[in-house]
Amino acid sequence: MTEQIASPAETAPPTQVQKLAAEALGTMVLVFIGCGAAYMTGADIVATGFAFGIAIVMMAYAFGRISGGHFNPAVSVGAAIAGRLSWRDTALYSAAQVVGALVGGLVLAITLLASDIGFDFGEPMGSNGFGDHGGVELLGALLIEIVLTFIFLLVILSVTDERNDTVAFAPLVIGLALAAIHFVAIPATGTSVNPARSIGVAFESGGDAIIQLWVFIIAPLVGGAVAGLLYPLIFGRGTAPVPGSGFASGGATGTVPGFGAPDAFQQQWAEQQAPVVGGYDAPVAAPAEQPIIQDGWQWDPASQQWIPAQQQQPPAPQAGQQGGWAPPSGEHTQVRPPDA
Fold this sequence. Notes:
- About 50% of the residues lie in helices and about 5% in strands.
- By secondary structure, it is mainly α.
- Strand 1 and strand 2 form a beta hairpin.
- Helix 3 runs parallel beside helix 9 (about 215-235) and helix 7 runs antiparallel to helix 9 (about 215-235).
- The longest helix has 29 residues, at about 85-115.
């Protein structure tokens, strides 16, 4: 007897608890690896930049299908403003990310202390700073963090757009973007672009890191919000925004068939096909809409797949019949005439 494997359409979606656990674990790993590399290499630009970028690639491929792989409150806020995530989920995601970052910073500090390599609490442990604790002054730190977070969110919103047919490479592109951002900002601020990452190691890094922490919370959130507002204004969106998201704007455009239906990673990012009411896992049918047809293929919301458009049309009646089913050519079937 062979074991029957459930089709993708029959697979249960991730629960809210699973999504929050994925965000917490992913952020924890990001802080531990990225900030650990920053401390161990003396904030070497290339090593630290690639450590953060590779950590994001790892976690996005691992957990992207579950939660979308945000691992960053600025990303979640930008997604909410762009119509990709409800504000309720944004608050929960951000809380999970901060908790994961705090755990990652604590585990890193304990590991460094136990390794007897000279680390003491209060010593910078991959923390962010400006002025005497960074390469630029306050205004420069604000501008750099806002602009780089804006760029980061534009990349993320673009590669996770459901109209994008190269979604399999999205985690790789996002990780490379984060590495490039670190190459620019490590000498200036130590690179945040992520409030959770900055919070996660500030309390082990001394009073100065805590005092300056507000910059690395506010600036990334501003940059992410601006990107979330401008992306749908400029490029539109494939479908309606998620119910409960904010500042939705921009017209809907047609979805293009890429590798087929959006995969699990993209489904966590792309606008939902149907509104969700009565809780996270209570989808209801969307109002009737015109079918999405591209190049002879039609998107089937029921199966979440692209199917040939002609499958949605009834077979044409053969000659000599007014309608209904007709036998294939070459076959003879006796049909009883309708009752009078």
